[in-house]
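Working notes for the structural subgroup meeting. M.R. asked for a predicted model of this chain before we commit to crystallization trials. I am recording the input and output together here so anyone reviewing the notebook later can reproduce the run.

Input as submitted:
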Amino acid sequence: MVEEPSQRGSGLLIDFGHAAGRSRTGQLSRGLPAVSFSRFELTAILNLYGRKVSQGDWHDYAMDFLRERALFSVYCRNSEHPVYVIEKNPRLRQRQGQYIVMSQDGRVLKRGHDLDAVLRVLDPQLALVK
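Returned structure, recorded in C-alpha coordinate form:
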Protein backbone atom coordinates (compact mmCIF):
# COMPACT_ATOMS: atom_id res chain seq x y z
CA MET A 1 0.00 0.00 0.00
CA VAL A 2 1.47 3.34 -1.07
CA GLU A 3 0.86 6.34 1.13
CA GLU A 4 -0.19 9.44 -0.70
CA PRO A 5 -0.40 12.89 0.87
CA SER A 6 -3.78 14.54 0.80
CA GLN A 7 -4.63 16.74 -2.17
CA ARG A 8 -5.00 19.92 -0.20
CA GLY A 9 -5.68 21.12 3.31
CA SER A 10 -7.39 24.22 4.60
CA GLY A 11 -4.40 25.29 6.63
CA LEU A 12 -6.54 25.82 9.71
CA LEU A 13 -7.60 22.30 10.67
CA ILE A 14 -5.16 19.45 11.14
CA ASP A 15 -6.69 16.03 10.58
CA PHE A 16 -4.75 13.48 12.60
CA GLY A 17 -6.53 10.65 10.81
CA HIS A 18 -8.78 9.22 13.53
CA ALA A 19 -10.99 7.77 10.80
CA ALA A 20 -7.98 6.66 8.75
CA GLY A 21 -6.79 3.98 11.16
CA ARG A 22 -4.92 6.10 13.68
CA SER A 23 -5.48 6.07 17.39
CA ARG A 24 -6.08 9.21 19.42
CA THR A 25 -2.37 9.36 20.29
CA GLY A 26 -1.44 9.94 16.63
CA GLN A 27 -0.10 6.45 16.02
CA LEU A 28 -1.09 4.28 13.11
CA SER A 29 -3.28 1.32 13.94
CA ARG A 30 -0.41 -1.13 13.31
CA GLY A 31 1.53 0.40 16.19
CA LEU A 32 3.86 2.41 13.97
CA PRO A 33 4.21 6.05 15.01
CA ALA A 34 3.55 8.71 12.39
CA VAL A 35 6.39 11.14 11.68
CA SER A 36 5.53 14.69 12.71
CA PHE A 37 7.18 18.07 13.10
CA SER A 38 8.27 19.14 16.57
CA ARG A 39 7.07 22.40 18.10
CA PHE A 40 10.35 24.14 17.22
CA GLU A 41 10.25 22.89 13.63
CA LEU A 42 6.65 24.02 13.20
CA THR A 43 7.50 27.41 14.68
CA ALA A 44 10.29 27.93 12.14
CA ILE A 45 8.10 26.79 9.23
CA LEU A 46 5.05 28.83 10.28
CA ASN A 47 7.18 31.96 10.85
CA LEU A 48 8.40 31.70 7.26
CA TYR A 49 4.86 30.96 6.08
CA GLY A 50 3.52 34.03 7.91
CA ARG A 51 6.14 36.31 6.33
CA LYS A 52 5.32 34.99 2.85
CA VAL A 53 1.56 35.37 3.41
CA SER A 54 2.02 38.97 4.55
CA GLN A 55 4.03 39.63 1.37
CA GLY A 56 1.20 38.11 -0.68
CA ASP A 57 3.31 35.26 -2.08
CA TRP A 58 1.68 32.25 -0.38
CA HIS A 59 -2.00 31.65 0.31
CA ASP A 60 -2.59 28.16 1.71
CA TYR A 61 -0.84 25.15 3.19
CA ALA A 62 -1.40 21.49 4.01
CA MET A 63 0.31 19.18 6.49
CA ASP A 64 0.57 15.43 6.03
CA PHE A 65 1.92 13.04 8.64
CA LEU A 66 2.86 9.71 7.05
CA ARG A 67 4.70 6.65 8.39
CA GLU A 68 8.10 7.56 6.99
CA ARG A 69 7.90 11.33 6.54
CA ALA A 70 6.06 14.51 7.41
CA LEU A 71 5.16 17.04 4.71
CA PHE A 72 4.33 20.74 4.83
CA SER A 73 2.99 21.76 1.38
CA VAL A 74 2.70 25.40 0.33
CA TYR A 75 0.20 26.70 -2.24
CA CYS A 76 0.25 30.07 -4.00
CA ARG A 77 -3.17 30.22 -5.58
CA ASN A 78 -6.05 27.86 -6.22
CA SER A 79 -4.11 24.93 -7.58
CA GLU A 80 -3.98 21.21 -6.96
CA HIS A 81 -0.20 21.00 -6.75
CA PRO A 82 1.94 22.65 -4.10
CA VAL A 83 4.54 25.19 -5.13
CA TYR A 84 6.95 24.01 -2.41
CA VAL A 85 7.06 20.98 -0.13
CA ILE A 86 9.05 20.98 3.10
CA GLU A 87 9.73 17.37 4.06
CA LYS A 88 11.07 15.74 7.20
CA ASN A 89 12.37 12.21 6.65
CA PRO A 90 14.09 10.84 9.79
CA ARG A 91 15.53 7.86 7.88
CA LEU A 92 17.89 10.29 6.09
CA ARG A 93 19.12 11.86 9.35
CA GLN A 94 22.53 10.16 9.28
CA ARG A 95 23.06 10.56 5.53
CA GLN A 96 22.04 13.70 3.63
CA GLY A 97 19.98 15.31 6.37
CA GLN A 98 16.37 14.82 7.31
CA TYR A 99 15.03 18.15 5.98
CA ILE A 100 14.28 18.67 2.29
CA VAL A 101 12.72 21.54 0.33
CA MET A 102 11.33 20.55 -3.06
CA SER A 103 9.87 22.68 -5.84
CA GLN A 104 6.66 22.10 -7.77
CA ASP A 105 8.38 20.00 -10.43
CA GLY A 106 9.96 17.69 -7.83
CA ARG A 107 13.48 19.13 -7.85
CA VAL A 108 15.29 19.20 -4.53
CA LEU A 109 16.18 22.84 -3.85
CA LYS A 110 17.98 22.28 -0.55
CA ARG A 111 18.68 19.37 1.76
CA GLY A 112 20.39 19.32 5.12
CA HIS A 113 20.55 18.64 8.84
CA ASP A 114 19.59 22.17 10.01
CA LEU A 115 16.01 23.25 9.29
CA ASP A 116 16.77 26.98 9.44
CA ALA A 117 19.55 26.62 6.86
CA VAL A 118 17.29 24.57 4.59
CA LEU A 119 14.43 27.09 4.84
CA ARG A 120 16.74 29.95 3.79
CA VAL A 121 16.41 28.77 0.20
CA LEU A 122 12.76 29.93 0.29
CA ASP A 123 13.42 33.26 2.03
CA PRO A 124 16.94 34.47 1.25
CA GLN A 125 18.13 37.41 3.31
CA LEU A 126 19.18 40.24 1.05
CA ALA A 127 22.46 41.96 1.90
CA LEU A 128 23.52 45.50 1.11
CA VAL A 129 26.40 45.49 -1.38
CA LYS A 130 28.78 48.46 -1.12
